[in-house]
């Protein structure tokens, strides 16, 4: 009986069928990255708003004022009388009624100037020139409520974290495609509810759920793609990251064309319903089917793959061999029970955490020069494109481990140099900081590939999901770490980033090299991998077909 890798080689390791599935599932990266970064445009700060005086709405209607005239009558006198107030977070402690003059409403208060009238903090009656342009104006997330926008992004990351655990586990137990399709449906439905949420509480609840399902779509599609190709073609795990970057690049164009936050939210959510059509064109992962003792279904799928690839499987194949090992209820203990698995899990968790923390920290700190939000965001996404191409050029020549380590170490050194460069050469600081971002982006993309290659089929989706959950934790911590440490010393966060990155670069050298090695099927396969180019690594390669050497 042939092994799965032998059958895959005969059916085609990256033929027409796999290319089609790869292209279809890669579109998930565009929608997921749009969700990931959408807060930048959903939460745009309103250009002009002020706190409305009680009775001003009725008076404005009676007098036929425009918004500009109401602003001039109610806020401008306040600013002239009190230079420290712009009328956004406080107002005059007065109330207007029908006896107020339309021509000079403050004349009602006699000789009192606006500077002598008492002020009061504004709580819930703001006026916006563009009331539905962002979440901020929709739910009054200004002044004392401004922190709630940060809360909404933290809630989204919490959803990512929850999805990594729950849906990662479900995909290993119930199958890749059922969970992928369920997640796509969930992202679409929750996205619509978020767009029409009647209040901020409902907005937060369904933003959390959208994050949870969004993580399910991204992680599951990634695992499917890496499981249906041969070991020499697992570079697709890096190429799929390009679609994530494409989503970052496309998002500002969507936001530029659509003036309201509800429109942007729908534009990034509704495409997920189209992915439900994959039910008819993307099969279940045959590797996963074999771990569930569903060899007949797996063989049927392999024959279909061979047919689409213009190949032909031997009619004598009646069963595909694979390990009898089966983990029906994977848990964290399965990832740390044996020495090699434990080492890989702990290092990968740290690598995910560090990559996310430094990546988001550098993005927030660098702040592309210029005042155009759309152009700045586009450029920040374009900076990431070279990362994937550099990986594609090097990873199959020198392996995974060396680029993984070097990218982290270079990112750390770049952060350290940036911290001590003088302020009078800003172009050099920006250049070095950009090099740091490019390097950490490479590390971020390599960790996806390495993570999926170091876990057996029975634990792969759960392992990738659990380790990558540390990415979401890093994303939650990054803004707090950056801004609180910067308050002490502006460059202090870069020092911390530098230490974290260099330590990560040294630790990943302890991981096994997976270049040219078949995906491990069992925990025993993982334990046979060596972190050195020695006897065990060579033996492992010779156990596979010659094409993997």
UniProtKB/TrEMBL annotation:
Record membrane topology: Multi-pass membrane protein
CDD domains the record matches: MFS_SLC22A1_2_3
UniProt domain Major facilitator superfamily (MFS) profile: residue ranges: 110-516
Stated family: Belongs to the major facilitator (TC 2.A.1) superfamily. Organic cation transporter (TC 2.A.1.19) family.
Annotated PROSITE patterns: MFS, SUGAR_TRANSPORT_1
Keyword line: Cell membrane, Glycoprotein, Ion transport, Membrane, Mitochondrion, Nucleus, Transmembrane, Transmembrane helix, Transport
TM spans (from-to): 21-42, 154-172, 179-198, 204-225, 237-258, 264-282, 347-368, 374-395, 402-421, 427-450, 462-482, 488-511
Subcellular location: Apical cell membrane; Basolateral cell membrane; Mitochondrion membrane; Nucleus outer membrane
One function term, GO molecular function aspect: quaternary ammonium group transmembrane transporter activity
Protein's name according to its UniProt entry: Solute carrier family 22 member 3
Keyword Lipoprotein set for record: no
GO cellular component labels: apical plasma membrane; basolateral plasma membrane; mitochondrial membrane; nuclear outer membrane
Catalytic activity: (R)-adrenaline(out) = (R)-adrenaline(in); (R)-salsolinol(in) = (R)-salsolinol(out); histamine(out) = histamine(in); guanidine(out) = guanidine(in)
PANTHER family with a match to the protein in the record: SOLUTE CARRIER FAMILY 22 MEMBER
Statement: the UniProt record of this protein carries the keyword Transcription regulation: no
Main location class: membrane
GO biological process: dopamine transport; histamine transport; monoatomic ion transport; norepinephrine transport; serotonin transport
